[in-house]
Amino acid sequence: MKQRDNGRENDALRPLHLQHQFLTTAEPNVLIQQGETRVLVQIAPHAAKTIQFDYRGAAAVSANQWLTQALQPAVDFETFTNGFTLRCTVLQDAGSPVTTAFNGAFWLLKLWAHDQQLDKGLRYNLVAITVGLTDDGTLVDLETDDQVTTTLQLAVSDLDAMTALTVNGTMAFDGATLNQFLYTAFQGTTELMGQFKNDYQKQTHPYDTSSIGAQTVVVATKNMGKAREFEKMFAQDGITVKTLRDFPDIPDINETGTSFEENARLKADQVAHLLQLPTLADDSGLEVDALDGRPGIFSARYAGDAHNDAANNAKLLYELSGVPDEKRGATFHTTLVFAKPDQPDADLVVNGEVRGRILGIPRGDDGFGYDPLFYEPTLKKTFAQMTPDEKNQVSHRGNAMRALEKVWRDWLKKN
Ligand SMILES: O=c1[nH]c(=O)c2ncn([C@@H]3O[C@H](COP(=O)(O)OP(=O)(O)OP(=O)(O)O)[C@@H](O)[C@H]3O)c2[nH]1
Ligand SMILES: [Mg+2]
User: Fold this and answer.
1) Is the CB of 269 inside a 6 Å radius of any atom of ligand 1?
2) Domains defined along the chain, listed by start
3) How far apart are CA 278 and CA 275, in angstroms?
4) Catalytic positions (predicted)?
5) Angle formed by the axes of helices 97-115 and 175-204, to 10°?
6) How many Å is the Cα radius of gyration of the chain?
7) How far is the CA of 253 from the centre of ligand 2 (A)?
8) What residues act catalytically?
9) For residue 88, what are the β-bridge partners?
10) Which of 252, 284, 354, 376 to mutate to test the pocket of ligand 1 (most atoms within 8 A of CB)?
11) Would the CB of 383 count as within 6 Å of ligand 1?
């Protein structure tokens, strides 16, 4: 392939670099660099449903017209509730500043729409490129030093639809030359589109989910006792389990709901959104008759915000001191929610319960949480005296899983 004076091959793009939130102001912004051309793009909403460009660089009037024309067909104002101004400040012009500005503007707009869950407001993805014609061929993604007779400025979608096409030049050219021009441009835009999509993917789903295969279920829990039970139950179907321990960068989810279901939805919906994967969550707790159903949804935080099983058990025994056996009945409850990414209305919800009695002294070493105090009358043991299989046969979580087992595969196939 032929090279330009600076060594860059004729069909090679300038290196692309995006710095999101280059300015630390609240307003969304990005610094886009294509080669040595640098444009700062900022977006601000306004009430009228219009696209406004505020290009700050040479030939601003024609630049604004071109940018608006190139973007307009992609924007669906049925979805966007307001319009927006895209301010593009050319900080350094080393060639093709308008198409560089367009790329920064489109992909900033796309992130902005995503943050507001208005992804549908953009009909397709766009990139723009500037291509030049020389005496002996075409050059992609022009720099200031490239000596060309004619330039072509193009915006094209990932559905191969052109939204803006401008040709400016000092020489006449024929149809074959135009085709050569377009061919070169499309090669450039295809490559550029891939680069922008990669960056967008990183910005919106920054978690590494490459280890998650088709036979894997993500469970949004940090509780290893729960995780072991899910692992065992799913293993019967040949399914492996990943938990939040596999994604340590996911922030803690505040269980601010007022019911098991609300809390399980919070956990499932948020993690499904962050990982963009179907996610199962479990919210469970112990409802003690003599305590009017406490600790209930507060079972993990019963003795204080730091989850401490020993302290929780000690508090339970203390609160039940003097309560006779026949009044120590309790229910263990589990709500399971299976969520698909960004479809909270489609959440699958099932429940499971088991009745038992709270002993006066702990028995058994297995299990977790309140297990040593929870006596189950049919197997005549505490949960902590049971093998994992025995516990799963009778437990709240086992019962919830059996309810889930009947429905989740069909649910997963829908949509
Ligand atoms: O003896 C027990 N046998 C069980 O089978 C069991 N299932 C749940 N629990 C306890 O009830 C609370 C749930 O709170 P919870 O649903 O918010 O879970 P958690 O905070 O531990 O983990 P996460 O899933 O929220 O990350 C926690 O204290 C759990 O230890 C159990 N105790
Ligand atoms: Mg919890």
Assistant:
1) no
2) 16-204 (3.30.230.70), 216-413 (3.90.950.10)
3) 8
4) 283
5) 40
6) 30
7) 8
8) 283
9) 41, 55
10) 284
11) yes
Residue 34: what are its φ and ψ, rounded to 5°? -120, 110
308 to 259, 272, 369, 370, 396: CA distances (angstroms): 21, 27, 8, 11, 21
What distance, in Å, lies between the first and last C-alpha atoms of the chain?
Answer: 47
348-373 pLDDT tens trace: 999 999 999 999 999 999 999 999 99
Mapping DSSP onto H, E and C, the string for 280-344 reads: EEEEEEEEEHHHCCCEHHHCCCCCCCCCCHHHHHHHHHHHCCCCCHHHCEEEEEEEEEEECCCCH
Q: Does 305 carry a binding-site annotation?
A: no
Question: Which residue shows structure tokens 């499904």?
Answer: 272
**Among positive and negative, which fits the CA dihedral 138, 144, 149, 150?**
positive
> Does residue 268 register a pLDDT over 90?
yes
Query: DSSP assignment of 60-78, as one string?
Result: HHHHHHHHHHHHGGGB-TT
- pTM of the predicted protein model: 0.64
